[in-house]
Write a structure and sequence with these properties.
Layout (H helix, E strand, L loop, with lengths): L2 H11 L9 E5 L11 E7 L17 E7 L2 E7 L14 H5 L9 E9 L9 E9 L24 H14 L3 E8 L8 H10 L3 E3 L3 H9 L4 E10 L10 H10 L1 H13 L6
Parallel strand pairs: 1-4, 1-5, 5-9, 6-7, 7-8
Antiparallel strand pairs: 2-3, 3-4, 5-8, 6-9
Length: 272
Amino acid sequence: MDTAFSLAAAALQDRGISGPLDCAIVLGTGLGRIADEVENPVFVPYSEIPGFPPGGVSGHARQLCHGTLHGRRTLIFQGRAHYYEGGDAGVMRVPIGLLTALGSPPLILTNAAGSLVPEMKPGTLALISDHINLNGPNPLVGEEGDARFVPMVDAYDPILRARLKTAATRCGAVMGEGVYMWFSGPSFETPAEIRMARLLGADLVGMSTVPEVILARRYGLRVAALSVITNMGAGLHGGAPHHAETRDVAGLATSVLRHVLRGFLSELHADG
C-alpha cells in the first residue's frame, strides 16, 4: 500500500475510523448538508489528515464525516479540492487512494454542474454516463509503471448507475443522464466554449469530478457520479453562471439528492 495512504488511514484509526466501509461519498459545492443525517458521526478536518489538501472554497467544509447513513457504514468527504486551486490535477490522490485502506468501498461523487440541454433544468439531478477531458492535465501524469495506463471504458460503473436510477425513480426525483465535460476553472466557460462542448457531445459542464474518477479507477474503485444542475451553460436560455448561484441552487437541491442517496444505500448490497 502507498505510504501516503497508510499515514492517512492511521490518522483516521486514531479517531476510531477503520474499514471495511459500505460506501464513500464526495459532496460537491453546496451539498455538505447531506452529512446531517449521519448517525453517530465522527468529524475529522482535512487539515488533521496527512496528505489531504489544505485551503478551501465557499460551499466546501473540508472535513470527513464517518458514521452510519441509512444503515450503511459511510465515509463522507464534505468538500473536495480542485485543480484550479493550485494547478495539481492529482490534488485528491490521497483522499481517493485512502479508500483502498478502508476496504475499497464503492465511491459516489457529487458535483454542481451546468446543463447544456433544456431537458436538464436547474434544481434537478443528472447521472454522469461518461466524460470528456480536453484540458490536458491528468492526475496520473508523473506516475511510473504500467498501472498508470488506466482503461476508462465503463469508468462510471453500470451497476451503480442502474441502482441510482432505480432509487431516483422510486422517490420520484427528476434525474437526467449525460456526458460531463471537465473545464479547469476557476473562470466559468464562455458562450463559445459551451457551443464547442455541445458539438463534442457534452450534456454537462463543470470544474471537478473527472480527475477523481481517473484516480478511483487507477486504484480499482467502483465509481458513479451525480450532478446537481445549478444553471444553464453560458449563453444558453439566458445562462450567465456565477459561484453564488451554483452554491445556492445546489443547497436547495440537497433534499432531492438526499432521497436518492437514501434509496441507493438501502439497496446497496442487493446485487451481492
